[in-house]
Amino acid sequence: MSNIENIEYDSLLIRFKDLLKHNNLKFTKQREVVLKTLYNNDEHFTPESLYLLIKETYPELNVGIATVYRTLNLLEESSIVTSISFGSAGKKYELANKPHHDHLICKCCGLIVEFENGDIETKQEEIASKNGFKLTSHLMQLYGICENCQKSRKNK
Amino acid sequence: MSNIENIEYDSLLIRFKDLLKHNNLKFTKQREVVLKTLYNNDEHFTPESLYLLIKETYPELNVGIATVYRTLNLLEESSIVTSISFGSAGKKYELANKPHHDHLICKCCGLIVEFENGDIETKQEEIASKNGFKLTSHLMQLYGICENCQKSRKNK
DNA sequence: TTACTTGCAAATGATTTGCACGTAT
DNA sequence: ATACGTGCAAATCATTTGCAAGTAA
């Protein structure tokens, strides 16, 4: 692990600890492990997939899925993680401090592809100011069928 | 109700009936009423809100919520309706053949302004196809502070 | 010590499913 | 007549919550 990554993780951890202290909450191994696992794995996790990975990685901690849910909610309220939801397949979480990007989501298998597009962001600013709004953030998710799912549909 | 609306509805209905026939499914009052209610009300429905409106509008049919779910799934698979996920507020359905609109949302007072922007939609198509996706829908919400709220903040 | 946190299991809420009866074709 | 569709209630799935025991501060 490089120094840069450690610095990033350390600052995340400090933010998390500060937040806990401010709210009279305690810093626990379980909470740390949730944050660390999100940080070490560049994926979009469902609560269950995160729970399974944590169980596998830290079997001695015997973390319960309820704690994963509780910690994800805490982290999301504090804007340390964000979630995206796609239909009935559920909700997925990722760290919020990644460089800004939007999501392309397969309605069929749940695959998520990240993208970034400056032209669209410029247009969004134009639309907002045309309507008298001062833009603070946005949510853009494109839903479709990915290459693989298009193929498997044809095979049926 | 104008002729134009009737023609639109009739063509929708024909599409639905064709689809049912094609799959050896039957055209029933309940299925018709789900489509008609979506058509007559320019809203985003949760399965439950749609169910409640149908019960209120056609009490004699005694439609069950399971049928609303079943019909929405059927209509969605057939691309007659699409669903959009509004964050934690759940999943909402609307007719797929309406012109797509997006939302500009004031974080301060909740004002919602609808807009439509062809340039962005074109870019979205480009992004999707560049990633091998066949685009079916999108969710774009711009969050900000509206004109009025900007003024009243200054007054404070 | 004393709150807060945990894992567990039970509870909840949304959606789906099995079944016997009803209905469109 | 024969599937298929329906409402109902029970089942399921993801998520939340109550509780007694454990742990950070």
Summary tags:
homodimer, 156 residues, alpha+beta, Arc Repressor Mutant, subunit A, Dna Ligase, domain 1, 2 domains, 3-stranded mixed β-sheet, 6 helices, 20% strand, globular, DNA-binding
What's the story with the biggest beta sheet of chain A? Answer: 3 strands, mixed
CATH hierarchy: architecture of the largest domain in chain A: Orthogonal Bundle
Query: Can you tell me the overall shape of chain A?
Result: globular
Q: What's the CATH H-level homologous superfamily of the largest domain in chain A? A: Winged helix-like DNA-binding domain superfamily/Winged helix DNA-binding domain
Strands of the largest sheet of chain A, in order across it? 4-3-5
At the first level of CATH, the class of the largest domain in chain A is Mainly Alpha
How large a portion of the residues of chain A is in β-strands, by DSSP E? 15-25%
CATH fold-level name of the largest domain in chain A:
Arc Repressor Mutant, subunit A
Number of self-contained structural domains of chain A: 2
What's the gyration radius of chain A in Å?
A: 18 Å
How many DSSP helices of chain A? 6
